[in-house]
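Sample pair:
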Amino acid sequence: MRTILGTIAGLATAVVLMASSVWADSIISKGSDTVLPLAQKEAEVFMSKHPEHSITVVGGGSGVGLAALIDGTTDIANASRGIKTKEKRLARKGGIKPVEHVIARDALSVIVHPANPISKLTITQLERIFTGDIKTWKDVGGPPKPIVLYSRDSSSGTYVFFKAKVLHKREYAPTALLQPSNGAIVQAVSQTEGAIGYVGLAYLTKHVKALAVAEEEDVYVAPTMETAKKGTYPVTRALYMYTTGAPKGLVKLFLDFILSPDGQKIVEEVGYVPVQ
C-alpha cells in the first residue's frame, strides 16, 4: 500500500514539476547580438502587458545561444543564422529537438567611414577584400590607403552568414580584427577612415556609411527596409528563435506575441523587416 501511495505521490510531483516548467513565470532568451535589441524590445513590451511574467534577454552570439539551448540553460536561442548540422547532432544526442521560428528578416549592411569616397562594391570585390586578396582602397577605385578589416568573432551568426554568402566559405584574412558585437564594429569603423565592416540593418547610424552592393556589376542596391522587404538587396537573411520542441506555456505566449501584428510592428520599429 505504501509503495502504491509513494508511486502516486511521485507521479503527482512529476506532473507538478512539468506543469511548473511549462507555465514558468520566467524564461531566458539568449544568443545573437543582432537579434538582441529586437528581443529586448519585444520582452519589454510583452512584460508591460503581462507583468506577472519575466523574460531575461542575454547576448553572446548565435553559437552561444544554440549551445545553451542544447545544454538546457536557455528556453529560447536567438540566432542570426540557421542551426548547423553538428549542432543538430549534439542536440539529438542530448535528447533535444530544436524547432526553428523565423521572427524577422535583416539586410546585412557593409559599412565604411563616412569620409571614404567609395559608395558601392560588388560581392566579388567584398569577397576579395575580406579574404585579403585586395589590401588597399586604390584597388577598388578609392584612395591609396590600406583597408582595415573589421569582422564579428566566430561565435557570431553574422560571421558565419557573411562567410557563407559573401566569402563563399573562404577564410577571413588573418589581418581581420574580430569584434564581439555589432555595436563594437560600428564604433571601430566610425573611428577609422580606412575601415570596412558589416552589421545588422538596425545598427546603422549617421556615424558610418552603408555601401550599395551588387551581385552583378551594374545592379547596385543599398541596404534599406524597403530593399530587404522586396528581396532586391543581395545580402538579406532571416533572423531566428529556436525552442526545444514545439513551444509551450510562456515560451509560446512570447513567440505568439512576437509574430502578432503588435510584435511585428516592433520588428519594424527596431529596424528589421517583418515576416508577417
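Confidence is low (pLDDT under 50) at residues 1-22.
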